[in-house]
Design brief:
Blueprint (H helix, E strand, L loop, with lengths): L5 H7 L6 E5 L5 H8 L5 E6 L2 H14 L5 E5 L14 E7 L1 H10 L9 E6 L3 H10 L2 E11 L2 E10 L8 H6 L9 H19 L7 H18 L2
Parallel strand pairs: 1-2, 1-4, 2-3, 4-5
Antiparallel strand pairs: 5-7, 6-7
Helix pairs in contact: 4-5, 7-8
InterPro entries: SAM-dependent_MTases_sf (IPR029063), TrmK (IPR006901)
Keywords: Coiled coil, Methyltransferase, Transferase
GO molecular function: tRNA (adenine(22)-N1)-methyltransferase activity
Amino acid sequence: MLQLNQRLTYVSEYIQGDCLADIGSDHAYLPIYALEHQLIRTAIAGEVIQGPYEASIKNVRYYGYDSQIDVRLGDGLSILTDSDHVDTITICGMGGPLIAQILQQGASKLKPHTRLVLQSNVQTEALRRTLEHLDFEITQELIFKEKGHIYELVVADYQSNSQPLTKQELKFGPLLLRNKNAQFIEKWQREVDALEKIKAQLDATKHQQRLEEINAEIEMINEVLKI
């Protein structure tokens, strides 16, 4: 059976329903794993570049899921049609702004029953802002470390009357703020260290506005970390 890395294994735990659409599918590993473990019945694997698209087709054939996984070439959610009955959409291994852009451009493809499972590598705040704009409420959040990298996982379900997120919740995650685990502390301490290095290179007279912005950001992070 196919073995997934920790990152995609976490993602698989939040898949619901019969049909999965995995955008940027990376050899269709996640759909194959989900079928092997009977998490779904069918899947759509989307790729925007010809090479990965062909690699996904090859992998699907190798594992014998030609009739259950439909590999499609196209940009983001544009690969989905009105006749697709997708229960979960996964978008993984990208920056928050890119995932946000994919959701914004494909907003018409999102249905009230569709769950979003999104794993960002950086800048998850942009993703949370977009989810709020699209009336998707964050129902689960994870932060974890794999091979030296810290990742965030956001699960969202449609909720037309969800409460707006605060500035802190957008930046740090509404659910992650409730449980500041070791990875959360490490991520944001790294961010403070990086901002301090930038500060040290700026001229106080030439870059006053930027310094004020950095100081405000450091203050916000330290308040959350209670340093």
